[in-house]
Amino acid sequence: MRKSRLPMVLLGVGLAFLYLPIVLLVVYSFNDNRSLTVWTGFSLRWYHELLADSQMLEAAWLSLRIAFATACGAVVLGTLAGLMLARFGAFRGRALFAGMISAPLVMPEVIMGLALLLLFVSAEQLVGWPAGRGVLTIILAHITFTMSFVAVVIQSRLVSMDVSLEEAAMDLGARPAKVFFVITLPIIAPAIVSGWLLAFTLSLDDLVITSFVSGPGSTTLPMIVFSSIRLGLKPEINALATIVVAVVATGIALAGFLEARRARIREREESQAGRV
Amino acid sequence: MPAQDPSQSSPVPAGAAAGLPPVAPRTLKDRVLGVTRRLGLTGRGGVILGPYAWLVLFFFIPFLIVLKISVAEPAVGIPPFTKLVEWVDGGLDLHIRFSGFQALFDDDLYLLAYLNSLKIAFVSTLCCLVIGYPMAYAIATAPEKRRGPLLMLIILPFWTSFLIRVYAWMSILKDEGLLNNLLMGLGLIHEPLKILYSDLAVYIGITYSYLPFMILPLYATLEKMDHTLLEAAADLGARPWKSFLTITLPLSLPGIVAGSLLVFIPAVGEFVIPSLLGGSDTLMIGRELWNLFFNSRDWPSASAVAIALLAFLVGPIMIFQHFQGRDQDKGAA
Questions:
Q1: Taking the model in full, what pTM does it have?
Q2: Does this complex have an ipTM over 0.85?
């Protein structure tokens, strides 16, 4: 059967569509011109301006701290949720739980943001907590929507994982908690790491939900970026974008390198095991 | 087999010498376990309690509050909402809320915004499908070694900021932007196309931003497909296009549905893309909700818009969860 080349060509075109805007942003971040369309010469002035923008830097630092706390909370709750869905069989209220965990994957953010804000306002009036909106309410809201993504990552890893190791450990008398920490957790560790990173990125990037639940003094980076580009183009943002792309690319390259090395080691071990 | 008997591990049980049955010394841990077990709190139950309680508190209850605020009755002397009542207008709260909900049906603005959102989301989803399907297909049929890196390339833009990717299109689409410069340089057009701040820019922005969400589920179903079916069809003389239409396409239907819903549902309520790329006449309901909340400070009406939007989306969300649940049930079995 002759394979058609058409899909490969279309894949190339599609990838160009995905990457061209990002490449253009990076290239024009080094342009010595405000217009963003005419190349007038290489310059780092937008980086200097970005680094001199204390409001932007403060917001970036706040966003990073929120993303860190969110990722840690979401990874615990999301892993437990993934475990419940993949291993706990039918427990009471499973259908409701499955619905609640997968709905945030598609729920429009304006709805989630409004709902969470009304919850925080009502809770404050009812029990006095959380007092006002700020970093705490942002983190709580972020954990709520990112834990679903973590749960999906963990659950799909658990479903594809070989359960015979867990069964063997249980047959030998290990308690469920011990099985989880000694057998399951090391095996799904890479999925937990990618879940953490996913939650971190989603939190760092969120604008809509954050805008609803934030308060005075808790302006995050996306909020600053949004309000500045809403009025038109700003070359500083290109410099910011380039830094984000560089960090992400480095991280992915590192992950790819580590993964390739792991695969090589595994291969070698397997070939040695085969020889015995 | 019961778990290890605690008495076996203690050196000399108290009653052993007297020939009595060994009595396990009750440690604090045993006592705590005993109490929790009597309360029905096993380790398993404890694990379930955490995420369950979180989601009920931060996901389920908030929707009840939105519902309540959007259709509140005059008897709302309940403390939680008194402050919200102040937000509205003193004693007129009932009347305003009621009319706020009613406005959705009376005011053309909201109806048009709903319909336009559905249209934009639907067309963008189709664009994602048309662009994404061949891409997913190409990755799924690529040599196994190349699939991982190719998939990585699809996911990678997702890790860079969504806001920044939308911003990139602003500089491409604007009047003296790169696209217009290119087209004019080629002599294809003589005056710049007004794309930025129009519906067209919103279509482009949504298609671009949500494309990876379409490709990933499509790839997952195409990759699992049994390729011997295609070989059998080819052996029997089917042309590639015919075997694609009669075998591949129907078998990838779950991926098509999942991917389309993953794009369509959030796109209906999209706020960022229409407000950055759309014109002032680009009506989308997510934007109206935002304006009601942040500009008009009319929380009850914003809640009413949210409830109406949710009512639109409950069907698609349930279908999405049905497909999502098929994987979950595999785990439960």
A1: 0.85
A2: yes
